[in-house]
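note to self: dont lose this again. the chain is below, predicted strucutre after it. 106 aa total, dont forget to put it in the shared folder this time
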Amino acid sequence: KVFVTSMTYEPGKEPPAEIPEGETKPYPTQFNVFCFDANTGDKVWQRQYSAGDRPLPTIHATNSYASSTPAADNERVYAYFTRIGLVALDAKTGKQVWQQKIPEPF
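---
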């Protein structure tokens, strides 16, 4: 299995390729964790989390709010998103096992 995190924007509100210094990116609408079959590339499952309606902290223009690589063992996949916190998902089904909110430092 291969696990990937991503974030998505509302259609039509994607950020431009280059964002002028001092400007913030538009708010993403959701954070995602995907599981793909390593042999076929087929999507096994996807878990989505709302990004909420509060502004997200400013990040570097070439970064993403979902740039952290998920960690996994034989049973769980662990992913971190600033707004959501740390989540543990069942590696086979994508069902959330637990979530730990972590205070945002911003």
